[in-house]
Amino acid sequence: MNVYGSIVLGTLMLSFLLQVVADLLNLRSSRQGLPDEFRGVYDEDAYSKAQRYLKSSTSLSLSEASLGILVLFFFWFSGGFQLLDAMVREMVHGEVLRGVIYIGALGIARSILDLPFGIYRTFVLEERFGFNKTTPSTYALDLFKAVVLSVLLGGPILWGVLSFFTYGGELAWVWAWGVFTLFGLLLQYVAPTMIMPLFNRFTPLEEGSLKTAILEYARSVDFPLQGIYVIDGSRRSAKANAFFTGFGRNKRIALFDTLIDNHTEEELVAVLAHEIGHYKNKHILQSMLLNMITMGFLFYLLSVFLNNRELFDAFYLEELSVYASLVLFSLLYTPVEFLLSIFLQMLSRRNEFQADHYAVTTYSGGRALLDALKKLSRSNLSNLTPHPLYVMLNYSHPPLLERITRIRTSLS
């Protein structure tokens, strides 16, 4: 095995083992007693249920990750990349079409491998803990829609990227970056009105005291509110959420119906104030710019390692190709992606603190955010005492106790 193979093998194993260690430490950390902050929100039965849910979901995630890395190593060291390449070359002669089929076949194989875990998670684990509301027909229809969207949206993008790197010369990465960025922006613009409604029904919030309270708050902070929508999340899960999506004329705030059913008006406005805080602090713009920069860096690195003979040798591939370069580079990129994800998670947690601060300092019922967060943690069976290593690797939001401490500081 050459140096490239050793780097990929080592980083894949290291990241996998680090996640296993983080999961085990997280389980041990969860055995602490109920934090005093949550007494009166949780009883002992509810807290015990949250701990059992964490243990069950962690076991499933570890099983899925273990099987995934074992299958990857078996496919790699048994010459699977070369075998698939030989089959595709025999079937198809066009380089770009060959690449779409090659990468598509790998994607389909990965989806098939993940499917049993998704079914078990939804209809066994989530059902056992009272979350699942999805019927088999809804699950199958969602899966079908996702596949169709992957083909209709992902196919042309993959075709374009492969075409640029096949025929675009030294500046191919610049052209690919530009087109990919424009497509991503267009997708974010149309997703709230054309894509997300394929999976959930978005209903304008009906007239009443809640809508009045939200509009009054939005006016008080000069937020141009185009629409407040209720999502029929209860068709699929008992979990609750709220989010801000889109930009320009298509930006909207969405509330799960499960959130509305279980929270007071003050709590709901406080949650909306948090989402508006992301907009006011330019977190959405920040995320878009970071994604653009990251993609540019990724495409540049891809151009550097394109058709690298040693990289192909590490995976037992005989003939060079742009499409196989793309697959192999995605594996070589693992250590960069791992470190980048840690930084992005840290930045996301900082942004959540800022959005909390904005909510409690601009809304007169700011203390209601504390109650809303506590209720959400109980209804979603959140882990109240996560281990710091697990937080560093996986949390886009700060641990709830840390958020509560910061909120109390902002209110004092």
UniProtKB/TrEMBL annotation:
Protein name: M48 family metallopeptidase
Reported cofactor(s): Zn(2+)
InterPro entries per UniProt: CAXX_Prtase_1, Peptidase_M48, Peptidase_M48_N
Membrane-spanning intervals of the chain: 6-25, 59-79, 99-123, 143-165, 171-191, 288-308, 320-344
Positions with a binding annotation for Zn(2+): 274, 278, 352
Compartmental location: Endoplasmic reticulum membrane
A molecular function GO annotation: metal ion binding
Coiled coil: none
Keywords: Endoplasmic reticulum, Hydrolase, Membrane, Metal-binding, Metalloprotease, Protease, Transmembrane, Transmembrane helix, Zinc
Note describing how the cofactor binds: Binds 1 zinc ion per subunit.
Organism: Prosthecochloris vibrioformis
Protein topology in the membrane: Multi-pass membrane protein
Domain CAAX prenyl protease 1 N-terminal: 25-201
Family per record: Belongs to the peptidase M48 family.
GO biological process: CAAX-box protein processing
Chain ranges of the Peptidase M48 domain: 204-409
Signal peptide: none
Enzyme active site: 275, 356
A Pfam family: Peptidase_M48_N
